[in-house]
Amino acid sequence: MNPSSLASEALPLVDFARASRHPGGGFGWLDERGALRAGEPVATWITARMTHVFALADGLDVPGSAELVDHGVAALRGPLHDDEHGGWFASTADTAKTCYEHAFVVLAASSAVAAGRPHAADLLTEALAVVDRRFWDDDAGLALESWDRAWTTTEPYRGANSNMHLVEALLAAGDVTGDPGWHRRALRVAETLVHGVAAAHDWRLPEHFAPDWTPLLDHNRDRPDHPFRPYGTTVGHWLEWSRLLLHLEASLGRHAPDWLLPDARRLFDAALTRGWHADGHDGFVYTLDWQDRPVVRSRMHWVIAEAVLAAAALTARTGDEDCARAHTRFCEYALAHHVDREHGSWHHELTPEGLPSATVWSGKPDVYHAFQAALLPLLPLAPVAAVSVRTSGSARAAVRGAEPSRV
Predict the structure, then answer these.
(1) Beta bridge partners of 233
(2) Are the C-beta atoms of residues 172 and 106 closer than 8 Å to each other?
(3) Which helix (H) or strand (E) holds 159?
(4) Dihedral, 274, 280, 283, 287 alpha carbons, nearest 10
(5) Which of 37, 44, 242, 382 is least surrounded by CB atoms within 10 angstroms?
(6) What local confidence, expressed as pLDDT, does residue 407 receive?
């Protein structure tokens, strides 16, 4: 398969996602059939991700996308924003302030700025100021995890996941503002967590840390299937980091350190060697223990999406045939098992045998990972997709001209 293998999935994903528009503002959690889940609060991470997706869709000239970007921006400036203390609530039912959500607000605002939407620039300016003041620890070169509503108490936990998504957000912010300082900050995070911590653990990236950034290898051993903080190491994040290192390298250009590409390849190879078919079934397991034994064997849609993206990015960067073959294998797996031909979008979780399940995730909360797997292989590694999609006639042609994919 070539980089456009999943291109035909892009527009159906946008169509499916339209139903997530919440009448109270923002975007809601969709069930397996694509209906809003009754009584579910509006989550900032879903609203921000979907605002980002619709901004990308606007770059593809998908009708109605611009208005949906505006709807998301309005929610991030309205009910999800804390007008008293600043920053953003985790959801309309949770007043915690987390780096994870704030990273996605930066991403959404950056993408909305690239789309030229009103109020997006003000949203981005504020989001970056909050990240800089409340989350960024310049001594560590990393971000704090969370605060209470009034910014008085921070959690005695540090996380790699939120910092990884902050890298994605800072790359976007750097591209749309023209300030390379955000790129340099993203590099600091990557250098510490990947070139430092992951390398020291033979590319088994620890996810959980104490306040002094000592790895907590047994964290959540009693909750191994936690959707955001599972025990062990999360193979999908090795793949996601692999891709982000290549975006970072492309963004930095001649200022990029020479370790970014080899580290990206080491993470990718470790994920493929240790995580694929780890229990005798095709697909990537969700988590491994520190001896590479499967812990949670569920197949998550976001993991195969990031595998597609990492393989495509490495192929584009190096022309390596092994990476190209891996990209084909991952696309075929996603099309055969995750794409839901009956109800739309992708099944978010599968059993090891490839059947839909819901032990960790229920429903189809958002299309962020799947949509990026369909679109990003059609675009250059830099600038970020929200910028490059607006000048890529080939991406628009591939998305609009492709027939629905089959295997």
Answers:
(1) 288
(2) yes
(3) strand 158-159
(4) -50
(5) 37
(6) 47
226 burial type by CB count under 10 A (0-12 exposed, 13-18 middle, 19+ buried): middle
* Residues 49 and 28: beta-carbon distance below 8 Å: no
Task: Judge: domain 7-401, CATH 1.50.10.10.
Answer: yes
Q: How far apart are CA 374 and CA 131, in angstroms?
A: 30
Residues 6+ apart with CB under 8 A from 333: 282, 283, 304
DSSP state of 233: E
Q: Is 9 exposed, middle or buried (0-12, 13-18, 19+ CB in 10 A)?
A: buried
The Cα–Cα gap between 196 and 205 comes to 10
Q: What sign for the dihedral angle of Cα 41, 37, 103, 383? A: negative
Cβ atoms of 314 and 268 within 8 Å: the answer is yes
- CB–CB of 343/270 below 8 Å? no
List per-block mean pLDDT (blocks of 10 residues) for the chain, which spans 407 residues. Answer: 83 98 98 96 98 98 98 98 98 98 99 98 98 98 98 98 98 98 98 98 98 98 93 98 98 98 98 98 98 98 98 98 98 97 98 96 96 98 98 92 56
pLDDT at 4: 66
State the amino acid at position 339 in one-letter form. V
Q: How far is CA 12 from CA 21, 88, 251, in A?
A: 16, 30, 30
Give the amino acid at 386: A
- Residue 270: what pLDDT? 98
Which is it for the CA torsion 228, 234, 236, 240, positive or negative? positive
Position of tokens 């994040």? Answer: 237
- Give the span between the Cα atoms of 157 and 210, in whole angstroms: 5
What is the residue extent of each domain of the chain? 7-401
Give the per-residue pLDDT at 404. 53
| Cα 190 to Cα 170: distance, rounded to the nearest angstrom | 12
Half-sphere exposure of 96 (CA within 13 A, CB side): 12
Residues labelled as active-site residues:
237, 369
Q: How far apart are CA 332 and CA 348, in angstroms?
A: 16
In whole angstroms, how far apart are CA 397 and each of 315, 319, 327, 394? 21, 23, 21, 5
Q: Please tell me what DSSP assigns to residue 253.
A: G
